[in-house]
Amino acid sequence: MKNIVKPQKRDKNLVPLSREHHFGLLFCWKIRQGLKLGADLEVMRAYVRFFWDNILKAHCEEEEWLLKRLVPKRDLARVRLEEEHRLLKVLVDLVADGSPMNKDLFRVLEQDLVDHIRWEERELFPYLQAVVHSDDLELACKLLEHKHRPRIDDYTPEFWIDKNRK
Q1: Domain total of the chain
Q2: Which single residue of 88, 97, 136, 160 could bond 30 by disulfide (Cβ 3.0 to 4.6 Å)?
Q3: What is the mean pLDDT of each run of 10 residues along the chain (166 residues)?
């Protein structure tokens, strides 16, 4: 029998960050689809750079900003978050710069980002909800709202769409 993951009860203050994780998972799906369909790697590289510059970089910065205000510097969750963000940035740079590893790096980036998002959703956010006073969480998230700007993934061409399928 499969392990069924129950939906987490998300604190309303974390919902905007949680909602943005959907964009990250969709990015990963697009990368998988592009590889499956044999899309032009240069187009995919440009998309990885676009996604980092327009969505993922700011999202990571906001999460780090939030954790700096909510947990101590040496908190293991904060250390892990910051380290995984650094590693994602390195992978984005390798992919976008056209590293010779090509498709393998796209796969590593896609899998690492999926794993990171799942960790945040299943472990980090419940941890924050358990250790941070709700008033502190609410205040920090309200401050974060003022820094936040809506992000749109409107990249073209849509390399992830199978043009032969009707």
Answers
A1: 1
A2: 160
A3: 62 82 95 96 95 95 93 95 97 89 91 97 93 90 77 92 78
